[in-house]
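From: lab user (bench 3)
To: helpdesk
Subject: output format question, protein + magnesium ion

Hello, I'm new to running complex predictions and I'm not sure whether the block I got back is the full result or only part of it. Here's what I submitted:
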Amino acid sequence: MSCFENLMIGQAPALKTQLRAAALAAATDVPILIEGESGTGKDLLAQAIHRESRRAGAPFVAVNCASLPDGLVESLLYGHRRGAFTGAVSDQTGYVQQARGGSLFLDEVGELPGPAQAKLLRFLETRECLPLGQAAPERVELRVLAASNRDLAADVAAGRFRQDLFYRLNVVPVQMPPLRERREDIPALVDYLTVQLSRQHELAPPRYSAATLSRLQDYAWPGNVRELRNLCERLLILFSGREVQPSNLPAELRTPQAASRPGFALPAGGVDLGSLESDLIQQALAQAGGNRSRAARLLGLTRDTLLYRIKKWGIEC
Ligand SMILES: Nc1ncnc2c1ncn2[C@@H]1O[C@H](COP(=O)(O)OP(=O)(O)OP(=O)(O)O)[C@@H](O)[C@H]1O
Ligand SMILES: [Mg+2]
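Helpdesk reply: Thanks, we reran it on our side. This is the complete output you should expect:
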């Protein structure tokens, strides 16, 4: 598991469980669907899976499905022959052919338009694709990794994503936990990112006082590890070789976070914790428009934990 341990910093159980599943799946050829909020490390994990797989010597090709221009999706993915359409002046290989023998990483896979979803499903089932303008299909052997920062199951329920494709991709799901659900990893991440960034910028790393680290651990990190990395970069540049104090942090981090750790005052007569929990879950689901991932985020839970509790309390949704 060397790549996972070297590349993905974190010891929190919420992350470790997911990395363990990813490492087991990496050794096989099954598709892996990586879900998680923006900045939680989905790209980094996809690369680590590729490097840990028997395809490590072959290409890793990342495609951002959200940025494929409408009308060109098919030709960019599967290629085209010269003259296939106006403007096709030469033969062009697609991302699929470029990833031959290696891994094709379909980032933001939920953004693929409907017809492209159907073609991807066909490719996954037959391993054959048809470049535009080519008479016979060609066989391409590769492993598909996919990522989404949207709740794909909810997209399926809403009719935005094909259920059959979802099942094909979701053989081994990996849910990257948000940083606020693994706050214990923040000091190690700050260390790692600071060393990495100080090498890159050729600057002496700053030191973080215990009070500063504690503020970082209290913050909710909506942008997850990417937001933490950006802050480490800023602080490296501004406080190279010096100690960072809480007063040096941006305003939203300077004071202990009331919002991220709300304190409910227990009424003198006590509460019925079960019905309070069930009520809060229903409120979160309503506020999130039924999106379970978003509702889980509102409650500071993982999606799996929320699903468990929805079942436990028999909540209709
Ligand atoms: N566990 C980790 N250890 C070290 N660095 C990490 C870790 N997780 C994320 N990072 C770093 O945080 C940044 C964001 O990670 P990444 O791009 O993989 O996130 P993402 O989930 O793909 O985000 P998005 O949904 O916006 O594409 C990168 O610089 C990455 O190297
Ligand atoms: Mg990404």
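A quick orientation on your result: Residues 281 and 310 are 8 Å apart (CA to CA). Let us know if anything else is unclear.
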